[in-house]
Amino acid sequence: MPVHTLWERETMDFQTMDSETISLISIWGMKLLTAIALLIAGWLIGKWLSRSIQRVKRLDTTLKSFLGGLVKYTVMAIAFVAILGQLGVQTASLLAVLGAAGLAIGLALQGTLSNVAAGVMLLILRPFNVGDYIETQNIKGTVKELGLFSTELSTTDNIAVFAPNSKIWNAEILNFNRNPHRRVDMRFGISYNDDINKTMSVIKNILGQDENIIKTKDKEPVIFVESLGDFSVNITARIWTKTTDHLQVKWRLNKAVKEALDTEGISIPFPTRTILQESNGEKAKEKKLKKEQA
User: Fold this and answer.
1) 162: left (phi over 0), alpha (psi -120 to 50) or beta
2) Facing residues of 151 across strands?
3) Alpha helix (H) ranges present in 192-279?
4) Where are the domain boundaries for CATH 2.30.30.60 in the chain?
5) What does CATH list as the number for 3-107?
6) Which of 55, 73, 165, 246 has the most C-beta neighbours closer than 10 Å?
């Protein structure tokens, strides 16, 4: 075979290999560029959505942080799956494997995931916010932190309580700070010998001097005789205050009313018991009388 023929054949083989290599590099280069573009786009879009949620004024800080992170990582996960598909990975098989693994993990962590689900519902429905004073599961305290797994409360004597979200979600929740105003019923017992109208007038004057008592329409102070007890006439003063002021107002009025009643000579009775003691002679006489009647 002539030398020039061999040279031409080898040259053609090298050209063919070069063209295939160039074609392969160009194809995979485009795929890599597309994957990088998808990664950057997913990161930018996720970050933009997270910042947009952070700027929503109607959401509190805890919910903003949770939703912002959730949206950001959801977008990143979608971008990651798209990148795998772009690189030729069978995403259907991968998603099936991840689904099976997620099911196994979910069964193993059923109790923990129930707390997560309850935490999500608490974050979305917001029966209470951080800083509210609540009562649930025989626990009273101020909410310090609301997380995905548990809620941290601080009692009035500064004891930290960590309650699982599932127990809080499945129980009644009393929120003492939800409404801006609270009603306070204050009861005072006076003796049956004291003047009811005079007592009510004294209490009315005390209520009128307190500036923290709401006196608008439908929330004016009301004073009435609630009941006639065994040893006292029970008078109730029904007032409305701001939620943040109700304890201070209640404590202050208890002191002021007691001092005013003492000044006016109106007594606050306490339970008494009268014991009648009979002599032996009277008992014998009573028994004899009963026999004669029989």
Assistant:
1) beta
2) 146, 163
3) 196-209, 246-263
4) 127-175
5) 1.10.287.1260
6) 165
pTM, 2 dp = 0.59
In angstroms, rounded to a whole number, what is the distance separating the alpha carbons of residues 90 and 80? 13
Query: Which tokens is 165 given?
Result: 């979200």
Domain covering 127-175, topology: SH3 type barrels. (2.30.30)
- pLDDT tens track of the chain, all 294 residues? 554 455 455 555 555 555 666 666 666 677 777 778 888 888 888 888 888 877 777 666 666 766 777 788 788 878 887 777 777 666 666 666 667 666 665 555 556 778 878 888 888 788 888 889 999 888 889 998 887 788 899 998 999 999 888 889 888 999 999 999 999 999 999 999 999 999 999 999 999 888 899 988 888 999 999 999 888 999 999 999 999 898 999 999 999 999 999 999 998 887 766 676 665 555 555 554 445 444
- For the chain, residues classed under CATH 1.10.287.1260 are 3-107
CATH class of the structural domain 181-263 = alpha beta
